[in-house]
Design a protein that fits this description.
There is one protein chain. It contains 4 helices and 4 strands, in the order E-H-E-E-H-E-H-H. By secondary structure, the protein is an alpha+beta fold. The chain has 2 domains: 67 residues, Alpha-Beta Plaits (2-Layer Sandwich); 36 residues, no CATH class. Strands 1-4 form a two-stranded antiparallel sheet. A two-stranded antiparallel sheet has the order 2-3. It starts with a strand and ends with a helix. The relative contact order is 0.18. Bound molecules: iron/sulfur cluster (SF4).
């Protein structure tokens, strides 16, 4: 499968909840130290060869802390229900921003509380 070319990659450490899903998806690029995920110093060399794993890590990140810009640009993914900017919004606004129900593990976790 042809992955789009990654032109920019960053991790928002404020949004990261240290699940390590990204580290498991692509340990060549992401690493966890002291509860914060960061990009490995030599991550640039893997942008081309590990593009699919990086995009997979982006998709796995429940807080959308991983920001990937590609060429050609991809459509914007729906917002995460854990996005701090959605806090306090109504159910209708939440569903609109996330384009439907969030993935089951997320709402199941909160529903069972
Ligand atoms: S998957 Fe997202 S929230 Fe989890 S450790 Fe990686 S960047 Fe942080």
């Amino acid at each position: 499968m042809n992955s789009p070319r990654i032109v920019r990659l960053s991790v928002d450490s404020r949004a990261c909840l240290a699940h390590e899903l990204c580290v498991k998806a692509c340990p060549q690029v992401f690493s966890l130290a002291e509860g914060v995920v960061s990009l490995n110093p030599n991550f640039q060399q893997y942008l081309e060869t590990h593009a699919e794993q990086i995009l997979n890590a982006e998709g796995l990140c429940p807080t959308r802390a991983i920001v990937v810009e590609t060429e050609p640009p991809r459509p914007q993914p729906p917002a995460s229900p854990l996005d701090p900017t959605l806090k306090g919004k109504s159910i209708a606004e939440l569903l609109r921003a996330t384009r439907g129900l969030p993935p089951m593990p997320l709402w199941w976790k909160f529903w069972r509380r």
